[in-house]
Amino acid sequence: MDEQTQKKTLTSLENHARGVVEGKAKEEAGRVLIRMKDRFSTLFNHDSESMPRVWTGKEDIRSITKTAHSAALKLLSVMAAIRLDDNVDNIENTLCSALLDTKGIASVTKWGSTTSDPLASSTWDKVPPNKILITPVQCKILWRQYRAETEYCVTQAISAQEANKRSNNWLPPPWAIVALIILGFNEFLTLLRNPLYVGIIFVGYLMLKALWVQLDISGEFSHGVLPGIISLSTKFIPTIMSLLKKLAEEGQAAANNNPQSTNASASKSLPNTTSPLLTASSTVTSSANGTKEE
Hints:
InterPro entries: RHD3/Sey1, Sey1/RHD3-like_3HB
Oligomer: single chain
Helix content: over 70%
Number of domains: 2
Keywords: Membrane, Transmembrane, Transmembrane helix
Shape: elongated
Order of helices and strands: HHHHHHHHHHH
Strand content: under 5%
GO molecular function: GTPase activity
Number of strands: 0
Transmembrane segments: 170-189, 196-215
Radius of gyration: 42 Å
Number of helices: 11
Region (Disordered): 254-294
């Protein structure tokens, strides 16, 4: 192969390779929103060791969310243009300053200025138009849609964290305890004067404790407030019926055992009650026999 044919062949292969890469890049750019949400879900719901996160209340949700958003935004900046010639651009910095910098967004909103918005354009700086896959305006629209669809995950994590904190800390604040002591002094004296109320309260506490264990309220509310309420509403009446059934069975068993104990005690006391009668009859018989002998 001569030199001219070799150059022509290499140029043809290079153009073909560029066409394959650009076609694949354009195809993936159309699915960039799905990729961004997958990247966010992976980093938000898994720790550094790829283990699922358990929202126990010690995690910094704000920091985790910011890291996941940064990774998704970096993916968007990579997919925004084709870079086969190693050209340097500032797409990532522009997106970060416009979409992640809350101070810059607040200043633009405050002054109502749209001329300084770096994303109010259809081209990227230092990027040829034929290499652009996603325009700045499209990036802004995609980011708004991405934030709306990922906000639910953040809300669920915050709810799970708050539910876990409430389940681990049942004591009220100190000021509430002091208020209860001051305002409930008269009721406390009433309980001291009527011990029957203490028994009723104790029985009520036992019933509530049994319901708490049977319904697993803390476990139900760990998945969220609304799912917990729905699940408890379906389990409340069957649980009450089950507890009443158990109480009835225990009462029936106690009633069945009482006649046996009564019969046993009566049989034990029968010889004691009949022994004086037997003694008296034997005495009368012996006296009669003595009279006849005389």
